Amino acid sequence: MQQRIAIIDLGSNTTRMIVVGYIPQQTYKLIDEVREAVRLAHGIGRDGKLQEIPMNRAIKTMRLFHQMCRGSGVDTIVPVATSAVREATNRAAFLDRVEAEAGLRFRVLTAAEEAYYGYLGAINTLNVRNGSVIDIGGGSTQVTVVRQRAVEASVSRPIGAVRLTDRYVKSDPIANKDCKALEKAIAAQFDDVPWLTGQGGELAGIGGTIRALAEIDQKLRHHPIDRVHGHAMAAERVYELYELFKGLTVKQREGIPGLSKDRADLILAGSAILTDVMRRGKYKRILISGQGLREGIFFEHFMQQHSPLIPDIRAFSVQNLARIYNYEATHSAKVRELAVSMFDQLQPLHGFDATARELLGHAAILHDIGNAVNYYDHHKHGAYLLVNSPMQGFDHREVALLALLVRYHRKGEVSVDTYADVLNPGDDVLVAKMAAMLRLAEFLERRKNQVVQHIHVEIGKNVRMVTQAAGDTAVEVWDANRAAGLFRKAFGCEIEIV
After folding, report:
1. Are the C-beta atoms of residues 128 and 145 closer than 8 Å to each other?
2. Could you read off the pLDDT of 271-283 as tens digits, one per residue?
3. Statement: the pTM of the whole predicted model exceeds 0.85
4. Structural domains present in the chain
């Protein structure tokens, strides 16, 4: 039976709540998400006290969040607070007020817990086995080194976009002396972390600053996939954006496509932190995660008594999406089996690698999800659903390839123009040949009765495909031969299916 859980993250700048429907260890789906910029860390002085106006904003927001949960069938509410509350000298009084006025009792995460849940959210949704995870919040920044998906080292520092903006951004646009003071303060926080210097490898990023940078990059480049999760940015691009922000006023930054007005004043300090860490660690790029602390907490509940790490996030993400749209498991498994067998036997003709084979198998599982919308044009509906779903563990090129394979599994002349900006040279050939194989596999499973058990491919001047059946395959052979035009065009040879 499906359960509903709400995770509330009361941060230093923004408070966010996600509501997730899930069946433990089987499937989950985001039902709702809401955010509000409460700026809880704003105005904290040397006495370390949260200020009255930000506290009132936060309590009002928590009251509204609680009301939303009560009215939407949420079974469990998990409210957590991070650095602003953790370090406040008046945190006990504030938390008592939240409980009395909003009805929520918050768990205050330690710096280590905050880093852990952020890592868990990223590592369960990005394809990162070895590398680092950085989480830039409003009041603190965490950097975690990952080896074989496990935490090897972690550090948390009390520098975040709100805290640094309040302390060092005293001019608009920022004066050179203020900028140097800001950069010096950031450097001082990491100078005593020797393992961070020259760390290299993959860098995954979470937090509002990093998501905002991804959104800006996508808007400026007219990126074809409107989702930050899985988006990659080169280090040079991060440095370019930081230099851009330094020369603009807050008002001018508000006009940057992709940057929300409530983050225009904070983006400078946040990007300064990321710039320092990327230069220090010699990271060549950053892979953006749309998932973080809230999702990390969710995975603990989702996996229950098991390890909170999902073993194969790509396979799980595909199965999760397929289940959400009520796929036909037996049919899809047979299409996958036939398509992958075809891929293996045609290796001398296409020369594609193991990653391409994996993507073909995933596309076969998802090829019919568009039927959840309508049978007619379900290949187009399926491609749309796929590209607009949270495909965990896949970068944007891979999402585009999956969508294209689903789009052309049934009919149509292959065109990759829609996603050309995220594809590599030669991907048009890759898509055409793999879509041809997937299309044949689909038509060899035409009646969805698994009558075609196996296939044997003979490669000569042309290709001959022999079906091994558990019954009469006249329909399947007839329809597969009718659908073989894409194969002939993609592979440049004739094919006969018997």
Report:
1. no
2. 999 999 999 999 9
3. yes
4. 3-109 (3.30.420.40), 112-294 (3.30.420.150), 313-497 (1.10.3210.10)
